Amino acid sequence: MxxxxxxxxxxxxxxxMMAAAVAAQRGLRVVLVxxxxxxxEKIRISGGGRCNFTNLGTSPAQFLSRNPDFCRSALRAYGPxxxxxxxxxxxxxxxxxxxxxxxxxxxxxxxIEVLRRECAAGGVQWRMPCTVRGVGRETGGFRLDxxxxxxxxxxxxLATGGMAIPQLxxxxxxxxxxxxxxxxxxxxxxxxxxxxxxxxxxxxxxxxAGVSLEVRLAHEAAAPxxxxxxxxxxxxxxxxxxLLFTHRGLSGPGILQISSHWRPGDPIRIDLAPGRDMxxxxxxxKSGGRQTVxxxxxxxxxxxxxxxxxxxxxxxxxxxxxxxxxxxGGQRLADVADRRLRALGERIHxxxxxxxxxxxxxKAEVMSGGVDTGELDQRSLEARRxxxxxxxxxxxxxxxxxxxxxxxxxxxSGVACGRALAVD
Length: 424
Fold this sequence. Notes:
By secondary structure, the protein is α+β, with helices and mostly antiparallel strands. 30% of the residues lie in helices and 25% in strands. The chain contains 14 helices and 21 strands. Strands 1, 2, 7, 8, 9, 10 and 20 form a seven-stranded mixed β-sheet that branches. Helix 1 runs parallel beside helix 5, helix 1 runs parallel beside helix 14 and helix 9 runs antiparallel to helix 13. The protein is elongated. It starts with a strand and ends with a helix. Keywords: FAD, Flavoprotein. InterPro entries: BaiN-like (IPR004792), BaiN-like_dom_sf (IPR023166), FAD/NAD-bd_sf (IPR036188), RsdA/BaiN/AoA(So)-like_dom (IPR055178), RsdA/BaiN/AoA(So)_Rossmann (IPR057661). Its cofactor is FAD.
């Protein structure tokens, strides 16, 4: 016998559970379907197990999209303060860790339990684990062919997220169904992901794996993305964050932030000593004794970095080494001409690199791209050309910065959708 519902939500993650709970508590008969064995694994592992569930500074400025204004309505209607009210109601405590990033005092399980209780309060029905084999349109709504039998619903919500972290079961399901119903897709890419380099070119830096320091990273788009007013990406992005050297390239918060902007062929520029004038500092240090150039840099950086960076003295893109700089490390500052020290300072503040790729979806925190926002109503997340179909969360072409913004988009888009389901 067919199961009939007012709304079927596919994907029991952050956005899906929020949408299901909101709609069900407003009187709709809702079913939540997910193929996973364990509920909300991405929430569970986030923030080192404490879930960076939002950011106090959330605004549309922290989101990337072909239409940067698309997220504005949902964020205004349900922002960080609203989610904090929900956590208070369930007596979940939290703390601010860094630049507005909020984490659970206990564990990510606290957030999962809040969402589970909210679903229970509305009488949401579950089909989990349950694979959806196909989705079709029919009179009165949609039909889901699942391994637990057919499900019919007047409205369908795609909330399965993106392709990041496939080892937890992430797939392109929402994108495939969206394409089936004729919705345009912005090419998906791994985002908030480490950047990699050609192995031979990165060899001088591979031994620095594990070294980290605060830097200023900048990215300038090599060319506009697409055409027209709605097909733009920021011409320049800049972040003051930690950078981490790895065996294959660069990671850390700063690189993850820049990665969402980076495209193949684009350079990144790194200021290895933000807030300092290294050229003048090196020249001034000449009178300070017999220290070498490497020793002087080691006062600002980890010693390993100072020695290896000076020895390499070139970008990791196959360009020739700058022999003039490479031979400086062992020389005494007092013996080096001011012009050479100033050239070294300039290189320190504008180290330019050309990544060759990313670490892929296995290491990415989110997927960028997704269902084109031009296909969706920004207030309800409903597809314009397929009434009754809604797409929310990571599957939409809205990607937040690192630091809790993507979870806030999940809450905001889920609530916007849930409220719209109940109104309709």
